[in-house]
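User: Predict Acetylesterase's structure from this.
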Amino acid sequence: MYTDMSEASLQTHRSTQTEPHDFDAFWAETLAAAERHPLAVTAMKVTDAPGSAALTTLDVYDVTFTGFGGQAISAWLRVPAGTTEPLPAIVQFHGYGRGRGQAFENLLWASAGYAHFDMDVRGQGSGGTTGVTPDNDGGAGTGPQVPGFMTRGIEAPGSYYYRRLYTDAVRAVAAARALDLVDEARVAVMGTSQGGGIALAVAGLVPGLAALVARVPFLCDFPRASVITDAMPYREIAQYLAVHRLSVATVYETLSYFDGVNFAKRATAPAVFTAGLMDAICPPSTVFGAFHSYAGPKDVTVWQYNGHEGGAWEDDALALRAFAAHLN
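Assistant:
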């Protein structure tokens, strides 16, 4: 059922999220610190992973690169079998709790003729698809685990979990562009839910992207999301503040550095958004808060009778049309 605004009201809704005065400086300093570590991209063709030998139409490479704090981040690169020349590329980020999965999963984008760079999610990879990348937070890392992550280090922007994850994602685009099988001038970013929010952040931080596809994006309009839905993962913020009652202003200040609304103002790549009117996990008004703030060419598709699954295969079709228009 509908629990948020009507479709007509969404057209005029605007987010009230505020922007920190040092937002740009914070991210410039964060990314400059990451760039002091060599990108150190490696790509090894997969021949012995479970199921990989059966992929006769695709080649899969096990990729590593250096993310936040010099930590090694894993990814897959999937390309049509026998590829030797650079291809337009799609860099994909995953939903909450998920990881890069297995070499033989997630084959659509490479099957459509693209180089598909599939980034693992630090510390996640235990909710639907597996992951192998730990979250090294200045010391001993924590391996893949079950959510949540929303309040990890939330006491300050510098310690917040998503500072590390967003930095990994920016570096993933650089790593993809560095690969011989990728045309560095034709790179798009995409994701669903958390992945859509990460892709939106990357679009606001990385120049020269060819396209953005953000399907039912998470991590948008935190002040509204944290009070209009009782569904996880936004519920984690409410649970934290129900105990840490005096930290509301501190938490909101931290989250403002990671809000898709603020990244949207800086993004210029042609963008496709989707939203489900019955989505309690990422309420449509939070998606529209980011959409209306988006600075580049944009379009949004609203699914009237869908929740967090959005358009499912219809969203795949939308993405394929967007990539055909902007990558080819």
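The chain has eleven helices and nine strands.
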